[in-house]
Amino acid sequence: MDTAWIALGGFILLGFTLEAITGFGGTVIALALGALLLPIATLVPVLVPLSLAMGIVLAWRHRGHLDQRLLWALILPAMTAGTALGYVLRPTLDPAAMKTVFGLLVSWTAARTLWQRLRSRPPSHRPAWRSRAITFVAGITHGLYASGGPLLVYALSGMRLDKARFRVTLIAVWLVLDGALSAAFWLDGRLQTAWPSVLHYLPIVALGTWLGESLHARVSERHFETLTALLLLVTGMLLTFR
């Protein structure tokens, strides 16, 4: 295993620890940092099964907080349709262009999060149709990059969700979508190639899950989200202009 794959292990630990705390960000952090060293097309079939593994554990452990109505009525229909479209579009896109677009997306969502933190104002309410449209676009980014979290969080901003309900509902979304993507990767042959790397990184995901669970109730999510946004902003800029 060369230096790039060793570094990816550190990125996975960082990202999945933060996802266990907040409910999102694991794959996008690991992918954004990993894409500085490895092709996105190589990383996605490795990261998706790892996200699925963590989702199974956390969704089951915290199932009592799951918002079933929000999950099935609003999020999954739009996210599933968008993810399917992103999966179909991905082979037609240029890898260099994908990296640039992904960098711009990461930079925009990170900058928006930081701007909201500076303003210290709650997100404004938006119409349901607009939330569904943004959720659909989040699904497309999930199908392309397995990283629909930032846009989905944007789509859900303004809703009155407590911390525990928000986290486990997001985790349930990744559980369903990453399960579908893992099956698709198995059918198209990419998971068989990625499987040895997935097995290597599973203990790191387990460690990240344990760390995130330990820190979830002890540390302010606001501080973690701000640090995550700063990290993503720098990484997104590197991906865009590299």
Report what the structure shows.
The chain has helices spanning 3-22, 26-34, 40-61, 68-89, 95-119, 128-145, 149-156, 163-188, 190-216, 221-241. It has 242 residues and is mainly alpha-helical. It has one domain. The longest helix has 27 residues, at 190-216. It is globular, with a radius of gyration of 16 Å. 44% of the residues are buried. The mean pLDDT is 88.
The H-and-E topology, N to C, reads as: HHHHHHHHHH
State the total count of DSSP E strands. 0
Helix content: over 70%
Low-confidence region ranges: none
Radius of gyration: 16 Å
Number of domains: 1
The chain-level structural class is mainly alpha
Strand content: under 5%
Q: Mean pLDDT, as a whole number? A: 88
Oligomer: single chain
List the helices and strands and how they pair.
Layout: H1 3-22, H2 26-34, H3 40-61, H4 68-89, H5 95-119, H6 128-145, H7 149-156, H8 163-188, H9 190-216, H10 221-241
Helix pairs in contact: 1-2, 1-9, 2-3, 3-8, 3-9, 4-6, 4-8, 5-10, 6-7
Sum up the structure in keywords:
242 residues; mainly alpha; globular
How is this structure best summarized?
With 242 residues, the chain is mainly α. The protein has 10 helices and no strands. The protein has one domain (3-241).
